[in-house]
Batch of 2 targets.
Target 1
Amino acid sequence: MQYYDKNIIQKLPQLVDYFKSGIDDENKNISHCILFWGADIQTQCELALEIARLLNCKESGSDNCECLNCRWIREQTHPAVKIYTRLDYKEASENISDEEGSSGGKKNINVAQARGIISELAVTSDYHRVYIFCDRDEDGNLLPLNKINFPEVTSNALLKTFEEPPQNTTFIFLTNDKNDVISTVVSRAQSFFVPSKNSSAQNYELVENLLNNYWNIERNNVLDFENNLLNLVENNGAVEIFEQMENYMFMLMKNNFENKILFQRLLKDLEHVETAKRQATLTPPMNDTTICENLAFKMILG
Ligand SMILES: [Zn+2]
């Protein structure tokens, strides 16, 4: 299966720029444990492979670079960049662990795989190693991590490695929801909401006034913010407004990826907006007043 797609740069410019500026920084200022969450695992994987390319490129990381590392990553043959799932591991037949049972189908990334990673990392590498953890079906379609395919016993075996990996090693986890991954892993990772569609060419005109410099709104004006938000939601529909808010915030992230403090704030608030959007699409949905109150308080009071 082909997972690399160079269009990721146009699809998610704000996140690609953010990681590129961190990687170009002389201190390689990006977390070695990264968690992506959202509905679209394929897009998350494209972003993870682009990060792997930027980490390994021997030239400037330009999108048409033809260095050996870039070519390998596009062809998915790079020796140190691995998409790691429960199915991508062959173990010695005498060593079948209990977790799989005898019924065939391997259901998780097991402890033997974890041990395999640990011994692999004990050997130094000339490359920047990137392990992308997710799941896939037999046909190669990517699926999110959850507590069944990436169980606690496996993450515990790797916890120390996630915390203090050898030099030039990055772990990336792909999932739908942060709650689907063991909390000890989430707490060690920097997490990013990854939207499922092209976020660079979408409108936000309905929320522009509401969100203009919202991070400077005084705490005691939170109720005004809440009322304005609720008005927009009641007149235009909750999902429309929350999606426009996401578009606007992604636009700000794209333009402010060098302002680390604002970028982090937007990243956090984006998670709150995504939560609100989910609450509005529950059956039955939560009521708009409650959703807007929660969201306003999280965004303005932090
Ligand atoms: Zn290159």
Note: Residues 98-103 have pLDDT under 50 and may be disordered.
Target 2
Amino acid sequence: MQDRWIMEEAKKLGIDAIGIISIDKLNQVYQQYQVADRFYPQHFFPQAHSVLCAALSYQYDWNQESANSIGYIARYTSANFYKFLYQKLTILGRMIKEKKGGDLSKKEFYKIFVNSRIHDKTAALATGIGSWLKNNCLSINHQGPRFVLGEILFSCQLEEFVGQPEETCVKCQLCIKSCPTQALKPYQLDKKKCLQKLTTERNWTNKEFNDYIKPNWGSRFYGCTTCIDVCPLNKKNPIKTQKENFPGWIGTKVNFDELLQVDSTQIKTYFVQNQLSASWISKESLMRNALLALYHQNRISTIKEYVEKMKYLHWNDEEIGYIKEFLSSYLNIN
Ligand code: SF4
Ligand code: SF4
């Protein structure tokens, strides 16, 4: 139990679960789940001997907003919990280096990955902190799916701590029955039908829009969390009450009237440090999402007024063309 202190320090830092396993064993689990070669840890840290997988719950009293509220933002991105976990892993990695790193530099001793190149779910399965749920997420520590995951790779051999995963949703089917687009089968997700996936896509096909998006979008702004929200295992996950200084905090609702006043050059700054400012989500897709929500609130004149003033908010011709095309082809607004 020479490395038990790592678990205790992680807990003090507010990390909700950690497991540690050798890279060889992690690779075996990668093989078992046929994870693509590009995700293997040796590609990013060739000297890796051990992996620490960590999970952080994002279930707070301030992000329990109903998913039907106007301007709803998926609660997992109500702050940048990935960055929050990264900050905690940075402190933990430094502590471990101080005790076990000897003369090695930080670069030689460890490397942190959060929501990046390591296959997070497989690392959580391998370390036994996670088990598969029918909604295609992992339950962490048997407390349901509201967690983000990250890893630290170490060049030293750490003592292993492997949890005991168990089948957690044998009889329940709630997530499958609740999915508005029937995108879920047990342990299988059809991404083409999933609103969460579609919310970030710049272009929607007619089928995607007519069959999945239009009937179910309502007044949301970003994402879908229904299959996570209905999971009864969330009740086992304590609701946190801390009011910490969260990086990228945006809350669970956007104020559409405020957003419509923002200059196009400032849209990403409006969501700064949050995943919504990531390069792979275009600002015009975000504005399209907002206009679709306004359409469902029957605010057609607001939409028309906005289009009129887009050029004064420094949207370029291509972006204005994209919005106009969406409004006319899908919503019949000219
Ligand atoms: S995120 Fe929404 S659309 Fe996607 S599978 Fe879950 S409930 Fe269905
Ligand atoms: S809602 Fe039920 S079936 Fe779905 S993940 Fe949760 S426990 Fe499993």
Note: Residues 181-223+254-331 form one domain.
